[in-house]
Amino acid sequence: MQKLLAFSLVLLLLCGLFFIGTNNSSTQPQTQLQYSSDIQEQNPIPLAVEKEGVTQPNSSPAAPEPAEQMVVIERTDWKLDQPLQTQLTRLKNRADKGDLQAAYSLAMNLRFCGMAPLDETDLEARLQQAYQYKDNGVAIADIKERYEFCAGINQQQRDEFYLYLETAAKAGYVYAQEEMATVTPELFMQLADATDLERAAYIQKREEFIQLQLSLLESASQHGSIRALITLSTMHHSQNYGEHGRAKSYALNHLILELTDDNELQSRYSWFVQRRHSELTPEQIEQAQALSQQWLAIIKANGTLYLQ
Description:
Blueprint: H1 2-40, E1 49-51, E2 54-56, E3 71-73, H2 88-96, H3 100-112, H4 120-132, H5 138-150, H6 155-159, H7 161-170, H8 174-180, H9 185-191, H10 199-221, H11 226-237, H12 245-259, H13 263-277, H14 282-302, E4 304-305
Parallel strand pairs: 1-3, 3-4
Antiparallel strand pairs: 1-2
């Protein structure tokens, strides 16, 4: 009887030990699974975006590196939804009060009207010309659209686009600075009523305008404008805008590669860099790389990026 009782106690003890071991082994994987789930739920820090002049800052408490602090500026559509005449006074009032976005929008819409027919006679002449060329309808639709949008805007008002564009550009509005590069010196001289100046005065005024374009493009570039960097690189590569043009273009091409996320631009400017490398001396390459790093530091300090 005592042997049977002892055997029962041993059996009961073994069952208890087995139950405890089984219970521990089943709870351990649950703890590991919960920990892994917590890791997977962590979200990446989003890039801050500025739209229409309003910045949405990164709310993360962690301070990112300077390159991660770049604020990508979204391009806004300057084209108005309604005919320009209906919004002309409002835009002018805002622009005259220092609203740079309004000044830029007004300038771009006035310039858009520069290619529109002035009146019905002009409209009919342009449509007739398009018909003679057997246009497939695209040009005809564009002529009619521009005429309807620009109705009531006379030539003097259309020419005022430059005044608003220059005002916004000189005040630091990057989009206006980019657009200033598309104004040819010949058009500027015409708008400035300077085509009849004596040769020396004409050349001086024309050169002053070109220098203004370069300074505005440099400002836009140092605020992260890819479009301005591309324009400056092309201008300097022509070697018509001062000394060391090829070296400056080489430096700007490196900056474009550093900042752009566009695959086509990456491919194109990688090829440009390789080709320009053989055209420069080791000293010029070293100077260009130093210039590129200097400008990159300025761009990161300004903290904005205007993608192409």
